[in-house]
Amino acid sequence: MQLKMSFKKEWLHFLRTFRFGGMMITIFSFVLVYPLLFKAIVALTQMMEGSHAAEVLGITVEEMNVTIQMYSKSNIIFGGVLTELCATSLLIIMILMMSPFGGEQKKHATVIPMCSGLEYKNYLTAKFVLYSAVLFVGNFVGGCAAGIVCNALFESSHVAVVDVVISALIAAIYSVFILCIYMALGLCTSRPGIMVIAMYVGQMILQVFLPTFGLTKFNPFSLYFVVSQQIYTEGFSFSDETVSLAVGSVIALLICALMYVITVSVCKSKRINNQAKKPEF
């Protein structure tokens, strides 16, 4: 019964505070706006060819041709959309989720429910399952929709349907991996705002240093490197990366489960300080 009510509470809180709508708008705004932006750039560049505006801006014909060729390829734009879903979009979603991912503890909103018998296991299970599932489905559907939009708007280098589905699945797993780590850190520390900054900076550092040391395979970040750097390279094939992606996905999901276990253990170890003016953990 507690678990059922915990899911109901999280779902209603998710819907009524505009966080669900905000998450979906964030995802699908990148899915639609990103390809349309580059389609507009290509159209404007084509209009400028041979015009006086190009001479004023100092843009040569060769530079315009390179721009048109680069931004007319479906696979490049599709890779860009997936990169944004795993980076900027995910950052916005983490900011939106600050309240359920530690903000409740910071505001002491969980004191009365816990004193009334609510178990942390049920409280946290609802959070980890619900938010992870919604983000996974949202990014997977968004990734598939991005492939359809890019193939429809751009004429060259179309992405195969199978590759679109696999890429969307990879991006969704990576997003859930990052969200679970953020959720665990926010809930354990009750400082979700600081954890957003820490997660963003940490991702940036790892995404720079891991390739430097050649650590781009067989780890969760290999999922990000595939969709952000390799998917639009010539001759790329998912069959060559099957083992690396499988191992990275399994490790990512295991870390998600580990984050859940750690969060439950840490939260259970907290005690309410009834001697303070305001009850605190």
Any overview of this molecule?
The chain is mainly alpha-helical and 281 residues long. The chain is 77% helix and 0% strand. It has helices at residues 2-16, 19-48, 52-57, 61-70, 74-85, 88-96, 99-106, 111-115, 120-153, 161-189, 192-212, 221-230, 242-269. Helix 1 crosses helix 9 (120-153).
TL;DR?
This protein is mainly alpha-helical and 281 residues long. It is built from 13 helices and no strands.
Give the tally of β-strands.
0
Query: How much helix is in the residues?
Result: over 70%
Name the poorly predicted regions: none
Instruction: Indicate the structural class.
Output: mainly alpha
Form type = elongated
Major pleated sheet: none
Evaluate the radius of gyration.
Answer: 22 Å
- N- to C-terminal separation? 25 Å
* Overall pLDDT metric: 83
* Total helical elements: 13
List SSEs in N-to-C order.
HHHHHHHHHHHHH
Q: Strand fraction band?
A: under 5%
